Structures are given as structure tokens and as C-alpha cells.
Amino acid sequence: MTGLICGLKTLYDRIFASIENATDGWLVGLAARLVFASVLFMFFINSGLTKVGSGPLGFLSPSVGAYAQILPEMMNSVGFNVSKIPFVPYGIIVLLGTWTEFILPVLIVLGLFTRAASLAMIGFVAVMSYVDITGHGVKAETAGAVFDGLPTGLIFDQRLLWVFLLLVLVVKGAGAISLDALLDRACKTKS
To answer: How many CB atoms lie within 10 A of CB 100?
Structure first.
């Protein structure tokens, strides 16, 4: 009986080792970026679009909505009058937060500086979650809790999955089908 079990275990190991070898270096990074593109890319782009000011240079002047989303308590305390909020440091925070929602997702999808962009995106998601809970007064049932058995919590459950996806990219990189890999090949030929 032990021989049969060990034989099945060996067969099992060989099958999955060959799958792992065939996909090593390209599948995980590519798949993680495709999942990010299909699930989160437009979420962040659309969120960023709510924050840009009007006109062609609107990206240089965040909207009142940007301040309200990123600094909700401060905006409430100044009666939603952006001119009462100092540009340094708060205007810079809003400006960089707005740009982040465009730049980091594009870098991740293209596979360019993917590890750094994904790590920064994890930080962004953490800050965004903190602001949602403390600044926007998200209720406990919406926030959810880790290990609560209810996958409907929009903050902890969803964003834990987002962070895991981004963590895969931090650890594994963008993979062989990416601009990172193209840059690696170009730099190695120059050395």
C-alpha cells in the first residue's frame, strides 16, 4: 500500500513540477497584471478622474471633490472652501494622491517598475482604506473585519484581496512579458 501511495505522490509531483517549470518566469506576473487590469485598473482611473480639475490642465489643479475625498474632515472644517487649505503640505498631498491613481495603475498594467509601483499601490490602498473608515465614517458592516466569515465587507475583505494581488507582483515581479523584462534584456546587452 505504501508503494502505491508513494508512486501516486511521485506522479503528482512530476505533473505539477512540469506545470511549474512550463510557467516559471512568465505566468504569475502576467496573470496578476491581467487580473489587476480587469478588476482594479478602471476603478482607480475613474476614481482619479473624479479628482482632476476642469480644462486641459485640470491634472495640475485637483477639484474640490479631490480635497473632499482625500481630506474629508479638513474640508468639512473649512466649509468646503479649498482656498482655506494650505497648499503645503495638504494641497501637495491631494495633488500627489490624484496623480497616484493614474500613474501607478498604468505602470502596473504595462509591467514597468512593477515591484515599486505595486509596493506604492499597497501603501495607497492602506491610506485609502484608513481615510474611508476614519474620514468618511464607513460603518462597521461595510468595513467588515478579517476572519468575520462575511465576504461582503467592502473595505477589509476586498482590499485584503487587492493587497494580496499587489504583493504577488512585489515578490514575483511583472514576469517575462512586460516592459520590465524588456528593459532587463536591453540593459544586459549594453553591459
So the answer is: 19
Number of other residues whose CB lies within 10 A of the CB of residue 187: 9
Q: Render pLDDT for 80-135 as a digit per residue (tens, 0 to 9).
A: 999 999 999 999 999 999 999 999 999 999 999 999 999 999 999 999 999 999 99
Contacts with 63 (C-beta within 8 Å, 6 or more apart), sequence order: 50, 51, 52, 53, 54
CA distances (Å), 158 to each of 1, 38, 59, in order? 45, 15, 28
Single-letter code of the amino acid located at 166: L
Q: What is the model's pTM?
A: 0.91
The 3 state secondary structure assigned to the chain is CHHHHHHHHHHHHHHHHHHHHHHCCCHHHHHHHHHHHHHHHHHHHHHHHCCCCCCCCHHHCCCHHHHHHHCHHHHHHCCCCHHHCCHHHHHHHHHHHHHHHHHHHHHHHHCCCHHHHHHHHHHHHHHHHHHHHHHCCCCHHHHCCCCCCCCCCCCHHHHHHHHHHHHHHHHHCCCCCCHHHHHHHHHHHHC
Distance CA 113, CA 131 (A): 27
Set of cell numbers at residue 125: 490602498
